[in-house]
Amino acid sequence: MNLIITCARHFESDAEEEIIDILDQFGDSNVKVSISNMSGILTAETKIDPIEIIGKIREMLLDEPWSIRYCLRWIPIQIVVETKVEYIEKNVTDISRQIQEDETYRILIEKRNSNVSSQDIITRIANKVKNKVSLDFPDKILLIEILGSVTGISILKKTDILSTEKTKRSMSE
To answer: N or C: which end of the chain has fewer CB within 10 A?
Structure first.
């Protein structure tokens, strides 16, 4: 998986079709979409850079706000690991090199179907990443998406996570 997409409960099948259509428009006709066992959560594996997809979807929303009806959030994932604190820690250490020396960061953990300690993960990561922390206005977000036994990790800018509802709302203001 290199994308996590959320939708309203019970609209997973509609969201799946929407994801396939959108990614097909962008040039990936072989996208693999999976409806997870968690209500409102889908994952996708696409050959297109997931961060690039976010920009294209944002443009699509600005042109035709009604073109996306079911998908609520689009979250790019750079690394996928088994949900074990030591695996998460090792991979975060490797990927954190994307954060420049002068950039601040924030750790954001979204956890579903897991009893792994968020505090344990944060403590172990914070000891490895030497940059300054900024909880309010970080340059980068170190995102850890725990979906049961699988965890997605990304280093993102705030604009790399797309909320279709917020984007549509901002257009009407």
So the answer is: C
What ranges make up the beta strands (E) of the chain?
3-7, 32-35, 41-45, 71-76, 79-82, 105-112, 140-147, 150-156, 162-163
Q: Based on the number of CB atoms within 10 Å of its own CB, is 6 exposed (0-12), middle (13-18) or buried (19 or more)?
A: buried
For residue 18, the enclosing domain spans 3-76
pLDDT band, very low/low/confident/very high, at 61 (cuts 50, 70, 90): very high
Residue 26 domain flag: yes
pLDDT tens track for 69-122: 999 999 999 999 999 999 999 999 889 999 999 999 999 999 999 999 999 999
Choose one of 76, 105, 126: the last residue of a domain.
Answer: 76
Integer Cα distance of 75 and 153 in angstroms = 10
Give the SS3 label for residue 133: strand
Judge if 69 and 92 occupy the same domain: no
Take residue 152 and report the two structure tokens written for it: 């997605």
